[in-house]
Write a structure and sequence with these properties.
- The chain is of the alpha/beta class.
- It contains 16 helices and 16 strands.
- The protein has a single domain, classed as TIM Barrel (Alpha-Beta Barrel).
- The strands form four sheets. Strands 4-13-14-15-16 form a five-stranded antiparallel beta sheet. Strands 8-9-10-11-12 form a five-stranded parallel beta sheet.
- Helix 8 packs parallel to helix 9 and helix 9 packs across helix 12.
- About 50% of the residues are buried.
- It binds zinc ion (ZN).
- The site of zinc ion has 4 residues, from loops.
- Zinc ion binds next to loops.
Amino acid sequence: MTTQGKAIRFHSQNIHLDSGELIDGEVICCPGEALEIIPGSKTANSIKLPGTAHIALGRVDPHVHFREAVEPTREEVETHGPTNTDYETLIGSIRASNKLYSIRSGCLAALKGGVTIVGAMGNTPWGPVGPYRHERTQKHYTENALLPIIVWPRMEPGAQPIHGHEGKDFGSTFGGSGLTGHVRQDMYALWKGEAVSYHNDQARPDETLLEFKNRVHPDQRLLHHEYFDGSTVLACQQETMDLAETIGVSSLLARHIPTGPALQQILDRTSGASYALPAEIGLDYIYWCRERLLDQKPETALINYRRPAHPSREDQLSLIQLTQETVRRGYSIFFGTDHAPHARAAKTFKDGMPGSPGTRNIEHSLQYYSELRTRYNYTWHDIDRLASINPAKHVSQYVDFPLEIGAMKSGAMTNLAIFDSDEAYSVDEAALATQLEDSEYHSTLTSEANLRGQSLFTVVNGTVFDVQSEVKALN
Ligand SMILES: [Zn+2]
């Protein structure tokens, strides 16, 4: 196609409107220009799509880990910290981390999954702590991205908040492990009146993972999942909601909710809380459960652990059902993938203990949605609200976009996911390693049969990317 900087049209019988209706019509995509929708039959040349192709709103994923960090100067570190490391060590760890995964690889993976806007986590070396480092990191991400990336400011004790933004509390997990209740409370106090999100899991208070292993002797594939058994999420959510109430934040977003009971706990709190309680559902929990891990090839099951851990089948079924009921009554609930691109070596068990928790997920967002459609009677409208409309509304509270996002209508920002919903899909790790420019690529969905859905084109602010094999911009 020789359409550089030009308008590209697509015609489909399945354009997803925000009302839930699917209509026949055309969309026009031109870089930087507003979306145009023309209902009705084909009027002009357009890119040929299969008859089963859909055109939906671009997906918005508020929870990805991108790893790349700015390389600060010595003066910047002297002025803006951190103070607990020397400059050479810091730069060494930034370079080591940047070498393993780039912003570009993360964007390519997002585009493969139909994702057009992401929120990036700040648990990177020299992360977005305090206004200066946040602005510097945001600028670096924006300059190197293929799509809009929102860098969430990282809350740390003593670090000033970014007013009007949403702070991310890593206090309960590895990013800021060991924060005592008192220190965490002081950190929240800095964000009084502001929005906050948090990782909703923590270790058991009375037993380490090693002690648990020695006491229970679980199947090695389930060690992590049985230790972090869902009660660990309930305890963390309870503690954090109480803390938010004491301090008085405006909004508290629970990240990656893994079970029905954990979602129910948040919904039960809404009537008595003085702040908003949006809910983010971890997308892969609707696919993986402990029972399913035992059907995986052992070597793949052994890299398939994350935090929070995968639920039991019972807790998964209640999550799937409650998520559908909750989105249908208009609650602020949405998916996040928690895409975590670890190097292969970081994932291996050492001395019988698991390595870093987290998995690559964002590039397979569509295949996860298909699971909900084909096995659990989710409608396209349920998916569109959970994956596009609701997360777009959430992030729009904190960041400005050139045009309205999360709306399928003429005049809105041209962010689209174009895909074939029925096509069978299987993971080709070698091909994805090349296409995503990700030499460490591996997927927990490798060898999974019965996956459905093929992403065809992803459109970001009017720029059309062909994402079927290598990702290419067409206009
Ligand atoms: Zn995360």
